[in-house]
Amino acid sequence: MSEIATIFLLIAGTSFALLASVAVVRMPDIYTRMHGATKSATLGVGCTLLAVAIRFADMETTTVTILIIGFLFLTAPVAAHMIGRAAHRKQVPKWSGTIIDESPYADSTVSAETEQVEK
Q1: What are phi and psi of 104, to 5 degrees?
Q2: Domain map of the chain by residue range?
């Protein structure tokens, strides 16, 4: 039974990783690329690590993989948010189909003083 779960999780993990790579190639701007890549890659690595935990089924491996998954799920969204925020503040062009931008920095330029204060 554990072999079936391992195979299923490995297939799911590689499928999510494939979706992440397709998202990076196919999406029109940095914001949508980052969204697709972050979500899919996080789930892909998470499924793959769960497969490792099930396959080896000892306490040390399971503990380490669960800690890695937790760290990944905590840091990947924060990193993507910071990259997106930096791109937005540097006014990286958006896709022409972007309808709404709710950021407080949407129509303003960021001065050097503001950047220094926020550091």
Answers
A1: -65, -15
A2: 2-95+103-118
